[in-house]
Amino acid sequence: QRGPYRPSILEASLRSIWEITRMGRTEPRDTRDVLPEYDFIIVGAGTAGCALANRLSSVEGWKVLLIEAGREENYMMDIPIVANMLQFSEANWKYRTVPSDTACLGMANRQCNYPRGKVMGGSSVLNYMIYNRGHYRDYDQWELMGNPGWGYRDVLKYFLRLEDMTIPDLARDKVYHNVGGPVAVSYIPWHTPLAAAFLEAGMLKGGWPVDYNGPTQAGYSYLQVTMRNGTRWSSNRAYLGPIRDRRTLHVTKQSVATRILIDPVTREATGIEFVRDRRRRVVRARREVIISAGAINSPQLLMLSGIGPRAHLQEKNIPVVQDLAVGYNLMDHVSAGAVLFLVNQSVSLRAERILDSHDDYVDYIAYHTGPMSIPGGCESVGFIDLKDPNNPDGWPDLELLFNSGSVISEPTLRDNFGIDEALYQKIFAHVEGRDSWMPLPMLMRPKSKGRVMLRDRNPLRKPLIFHNYFQYPEDLEVLVDGVLRTIELSNTEPFQRFGSTLHDTPIPACKSKGFGTRAYWRCHIRHFPFTIYHQSGTCKMGPRSDPNAVVDSRLRVHGVGRLRVVDASIMPAIPAAHTNAPTYMIAEKAADMIKEDNGVPV
Ligand SMILES: Cc1cc2nc3c(=O)[nH]c(=O)nc-3n(C[C@H](O)[C@H](O)[C@H](O)COP(=O)(O)OP(=O)(O)OC[C@H]3O[C@@H](n4cnc5c(N)ncnc54)[C@H](O)[C@@H]3O)c2cc1C
């Protein structure tokens, strides 16, 4: 898989500079002088916001303003291996959950990190690029929850519309895949031998290979990722790059929306107040205001504008416009973190090895392949329905996400999750320098729900985030099952070729449970629950009769006119999927609904 010709570092670097120059401007310019009025104002240029901005600004006669708090996306952000590092940059909102006594016990101050993208492209620029639609039952369930038009047979066409499948074998399946959509999907161009061992082990333990974005999801596969030619293909690259000079779209960057303007008489949204360069500005919407600020910021902005739970708003001295359960129903996919296996060969991804390697650098810079093309170490995956594990049509409640490195592979990874430094030193420091892998068993269909609340009425202060992980003990048991399964995988021949052994230094506070017992793993998981960053659900879609619903099935905010929410926050139940592709689907479908509701044929 290495390139055929080995250029020198200098030549490879020059090629890369040439490539960047040739790429030119890859996103719309920053419009400093916004007009007083647009047809549509979209808040947030993330996964959903960029897709929506493209589709709405394509309608003749419509002018669209996209307001984004972050700055430009740059070439460095699109190198897959640096995904972990981006969380330390200003492209991350750097949220942390409220300290908890039941989870995140091994994290500094018992707080888990909750990264969110603050950049053109939003979280699609921070993410690990895993492309995953979810199971057909996820969407049929959304419809059963009172949301007509969201069943799988309806949403499949939007999943197809967004996709540009570049994997030839999969592209042949015209029912489940599409070629020519904006979002490029490929396999990662290079793999460690450990990723192959993971798949072989999965087969030996009764699994089977699957296109998990095809008719069924259960099974094992290398990851399908949103990459083109070994580089990140964010929503910004996919949807805004091709229309960067479109005159009907204006984008104001480094601009934080602080309030939705609502007419008290008509109860309709009329515009947005935002802050740019420390100055307060106001812009009006002739047709609609659309909030696409993501699962943490969308509920925050609604509540700041008087749309939210009455008692909570009154407590913060915010006049209530509409009493709705904004901020409830926070869902995430949490995993059993820091379970790691040591191997006895140099086959895993280790930061210092990559940084020291002339070959790895040249392979990426000149050919966009090699270890640097692996998004943060994520390579392959297994989806399992624990209640029906042999059924290919099973609805997965467990994912095993294979990572060809672990918390000891690079000095920053423990900080990504916020692991307490003293605890890290006790458990992991003595194996630093060893090769390792980490399976990340992940809970796909959690029962536990968290909540986003305002800290105060200052729009520039971070909201309070209560994750409520493991509020239901069943959720914890799925992850314990997941850990035990990964130990079984490690014990198979494909991993034993590399001498894979479970790292067995116990967490001091869990030691009395007996290392390796279910009770021990429960305790371990409560110490190290790693978010897989799928925050969703906080502006739940549902009928007016649902006390927790915030938007209806056309994504209009209940009780407030000309206002919609379009992003991961509307998910009524989190799908058994990494949430980026489902969020694109939501935006594509929303674009059609907005056109229909404004008299434009689709
Ligand atoms: C580290 C990380 C890894 C992930 N890995 C994967 C993965 O591999 N695969 C996958 O499918 N999913 C992954 N996800 C999740 C996925 O990326 C998200 O579900 C998806 O991007 C959510 O899209 P969104 O449009 O709802 O919000 P976002 O993409 O977060 O967009 C919200 C945008 O709104 C902007 N904004 C917020 N508030 C304001 C304001 N007041 N004013 C102006 N702008 C504002 C933000 O800056 C941001 O650009 C990951 C997420 C993260 C953070």
UniProtKB/TrEMBL annotation:
Residues the entry annotates as binding FAD: 119
Gene3D superfamilies found in the cross-reference section: FAD/NAD(P)-binding domain, Glucose Oxidase, domain 3
One MF term in the entry's GO annotations: oxidoreductase activity, acting on CH-OH group of donors
Keywords carried by this UniProt record: FAD, Flavoprotein, Signal
Active site: 534 (proton donor), 578 (proton acceptor)
Domain Glucose-methanol-choline oxidoreductase N-terminal as annotated: residue spans: 294-308
Cofactor: FAD
Top-level taxon in the UniProt lineage: Eukaryota
Family: Belongs to the GMC oxidoreductase family.
Name of protein: Glucose dehydrogenase [FAD, quinone]-like
